[in-house]
Design goal:
The protein has 256 residues and is α/β, with parallel strands linked by helices. The chain has a single domain, classed as TIM Barrel (Alpha-Beta Barrel). An 8-stranded parallel sheet has the order 7-6-5-4-3-2-1-8. Strand 3, helix 3 and strand 4 form a beta-alpha-beta unit. The longest helix is centred in the last third of the chain and has 19 residues. The protein is globular. The termini are close together.
Length: 256
């Protein structure tokens, strides 16, 4: 982390988990243990049907609520989809874009990711853009080339002020939900590479200001070591964000 230049963000990605009733119970369990978390921002990205309820449940805290995806169009015949403006209107402040599961199961591409980033920014949301390589790609030695392509495409057409509002989440696909985690060195190396890409495209000041998270199975045990890396500015947390004690432990690690 580098608190001098940028914000640390610990964000939970609940995926397709928790009913509204369970969301309210989670809020009641976690609120007494949140403290001030003065060194980081806490975000919970929840299923769309829970967003308004989550905003209400956390209204007296500094926890921000986000969506898990959005469509790139402002309206239209897209049954089952939600727009960025819809998320904003019910109180969301963030939205995850391009998660590997969205790419795998719902055919999202780097080009649709770029369109969604623009839609989110236009609506006033802060996009958390996921990038990452598969195990096969890492073993082929193309991690840096792939990450470069993903980051450049996601940020294509944005100006410097817009890029400052984007969060990049490095999620090696081989470490999502597998229990495997990149070493702190491996994760830090890729996050440093991501910052170098932004620096080349938008300059050093913008690159210093962009929050870059690590999201491959960060948990209560490894969070502190990962967050000690200078270019890892938080985490996009999956399974551990569903457990109040574990999520609080990660937040505490970011406040050291």
């Amino acid at each position: 982390m580098n608190l001098k230049y940028r914000k640390t963000i610990i964000a939970g990605n609940w995926k397709m988990n928790k009913t509204l009733t369970e969301t309210k119970a989670f809020a009641e369990a976690i609120k007494p243990n949140l403290g001030r978390h003065k060194w980081c921002e806490v975000v919970l990205c929840v299923p769309g049907v829970n967003i308004a309820g989550a905003v209400k449940a956390f209204k007296d805290t500094r926890v921000s609520i986000g969506g898990e995806t959005c469509h790139y169009e402002a309206s239209g015949a897209y049954t089952g989809e939600v727009t960025a403006e819809m998320l904003k209107d019910v109180g969301a402040k963030y939205v995850i874009i391009g998660h590997s599961e969205r790419r795998q199961y719902y055919n999202e591409t780097d080009f649709t990711v770029n369109k969604k980033v623009k839609a989110a920014l236009e609506a006033g949301l802060k996009p958390i853009v996921c990038v990452g390589e598969s195990l096969e790609q890492r073993e082929l030695g193309v991690t840096e080339e792939l990450i470069s392509y993903q980051v450049k495409t996601a940020l294509s057409g944005l100006n410097e002020n817009q890029v400052r509002r984007v969060v990049i989440a490095y999620e090696p696909i081989w470490a999502i939900g597998t229990g495997k985690t990149a070493t702190a060195g491996q994760a830090g190396e890729v996050c440093t590479h991501i910052r170098s890409i932004i620096r080349k495209q938008f300059g050093a000041r913008v690159a210093r200001a962009v929050t870059i998270q690590y999201g491959g199975s960060m948990n209560a045990k490894n969070a502190r070591e990962l967050l000690a890396q200078p270019d890892i500015d938080g985490g996009l947390i999956g399974g551990a964000s569903l457990k109040p004690d574990d999520f609080v432990a990660i937040i505490n690690a970011a406040n050291q």
